[in-house]
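Morning run. Coffee first, then this:
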Amino acid sequence: MISRLEDRDRKLVGITVVNMSRQRAEELERVSYAELGDKPFDDDLVEFIVSGLVVSMVWGAGRDETG
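And here it is:
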């Protein structure tokens, strides 16, 4: 995935790997997917998030634009 974005002239600005707590995963799900209401995948999504490591990435504009 990283190389595909870099091939599109994006720059990886930051990356972190975390083991997310259930409380944080439930908060993330509630805030990020609030507009979807009580969809049946809610519990499955939280279970998936807490099942392993989460990799968070921040991507910047093209290399030429960031110097």
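The mean pLDDT is 84. Good start to the day.
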